[in-house]
Amino acid sequence: MGTQTSKQAFEEAQELIPGGVNSPVRAFKSVGGTPIFITEGEGAYLKDVDGNKYVDYVQSWGPLIFGHRDESIESAVIEAVKHGLSFGAPTQAETELAKLVVGLFDSIDKVRFVSSGTEAVMSAIRLARGFTNRDDIVKFTGCYHGHSDSLLVEAGSGAATFGSPSSPGVPADFTKHTLLAEYNNIESVKKCFADSDNIACVIIEPIAGNMGLVPADKEFLHELRKLCDEHGTLLIFDEVMSGFRATLRGAESITGVTPDIVTLGKVIGGGMPVGAFGARAEIMAQLSPEGPVYQAGTLSGNPVAMAAGYAALSKLKQNGRVIDVLNTRAVRLVEGMRDAAAECGVTMQIDTRGSMFGFFFNENPVKNFNDATKTDAELFAKFHAGMLKEGYYFACSLYETGFISTAVTDEMIEDTIAASKKVLKEITNG
Ligand code: PMP
């Protein structure tokens, strides 16, 4: 299985595009090696420029829950394109997608569409600040909320401190209102509230997917809700990744904790660039043009993207059990991989939520980012390279989540488990 053409393509791209990629994680940096350049996707598979075929467990980092080239999404997009790519004026397609989202999320009365998850979260934070008339925000170490300035804050050591920027180019002044807490640790959140009486919102991935898959404990979320209520602080669930992936009706439907604002992305666009944020009417009324909190976008509510999102969400809604079926496959996959690892003397921590799966080469369960960093990175890199050679495309970073699409069959899952056994044996014997 050669990858010579990908190597050449990467070299050429590096001449013109920083690092050869338009989003850093794609560069295979944390696993070494060269990224695979893709020509097309078909169902469960990705095909690369060298003619190799891979079972795709990345699914464009989440959006493609029905796999590549899903017929109903593809035809909805083609139909929409025939009417024009963008109008910068309202269309009924936006209202139709809004109806679906509002119908699925109890916490959402009104929703606004944007073009990425980053934009959704950035806007939600502004809305929370505008609504509460406060400046500080709390985020959790290891949660990723896109790359807007105030959310690019270095992971702390669990102590609640005012954060410092994790990227050059972000002035310290811009992050001085961002407090850090430790995931699943309510005491660290209490410390934030002790440090500041100016907290507009607490933002959390209720099912974290950016430190590997680390779902928040239910009890922790309930306590978080209580703390927010006591302090008049809004609770934001960032479900850009977990929305429509972990469950159809949001984390609120499986945890019993209702957030004030929800951010969405990925699946909601069916593979097109879409993000969204929604809340109860009273909060959304603060948003321009109804209210004073400014937010806008040339391509927001783009008709082609709305058509793709509508096709994806309506198909999910009609097939209510899809996410459960995918979970059965996800559970089988990670349990099979864990057993294969155990045969080779390797301990794996595994978890799933709906169509999301995660695994760590860790001795102990993972509850927060600090635990996640104990993953055996070298073993992961070898595993990733070995699986790629066998024709299985897993996320090229330790801290990502895997995704199962409806195009992945039970047989593919069994083959993946067999391949993982082979690869782990090779690694551990070598
Ligand atoms: N929030 C979460 C939870 C995410 O997982 C991501 C992207 N992985 C974002 C926000 C940012 O979304 P985007 O990459 O579309 O800007």
TrEMBL record:
EC number(s) recorded for this UniProt protein: 5.4.3.8
Pathway(s) per entry: Porphyrin-containing compound metabolism; protoporphyrin-IX biosynthesis; 5-aminolevulinate from L-glutamyl-tRNA(Glu): step 2/2
| Organism expressing this protein natively | Sulfurimonas marina
Q: Which CDD domains match?
A: OAT_like (cd00610)
Cofactor needs? pyridoxal 5'-phosphate
As for subcellular location, the record says: Cytoplasm
Q: Tell me which family the UniProt entry assigns to this protein.
A: Belongs to the class-III pyridoxal-phosphate-dependent aminotransferase family. HemL subfamily.
Quaternary assembly? Homodimer.
A Pfam family the protein falls into? Aminotran_3
User: What is the official name of this protein in its record?
Assistant: Glutamate-1-semialdehyde 2,1-aminomutase
Supply one GO BP term. Answer: protoporphyrinogen IX biosynthetic process
Where are the N6-(pyridoxal phosphate)lysine modifications? K266
- Keywords noted in UniProt: Cytoplasm, Isomerase, Porphyrin biosynthesis, Pyridoxal phosphate
Q: For this protein, what reaction is catalysed?
A: (S)-4-amino-5-oxopentanoate = 5-aminolevulinate
What's in the GO CC field? Answer: cytoplasm
Q: Which residues form a coiled coil?
A: none
Lineage here is: Bacteria, Pseudomonadati, Campylobacterota, Epsilonproteobacteria, Campylobacterales
The cross-references to InterPro entries, in alphabetical order and at most eight, read: 4pyrrol_synth_GluAld_NH2Trfase, Aminotrans_3, PyrdxlP-dep_Trfase, PyrdxlP-dep_Trfase_major, PyrdxlP-dep_Trfase_small
Known SUPFAM superfamilies for this protein? PLP-dependent transferases
Q: Which GO terms describe its molecular function?
A: glutamate-1-semialdehyde 2,1-aminomutase activity; pyridoxal phosphate binding; transaminase activity
What's the gene? hemL
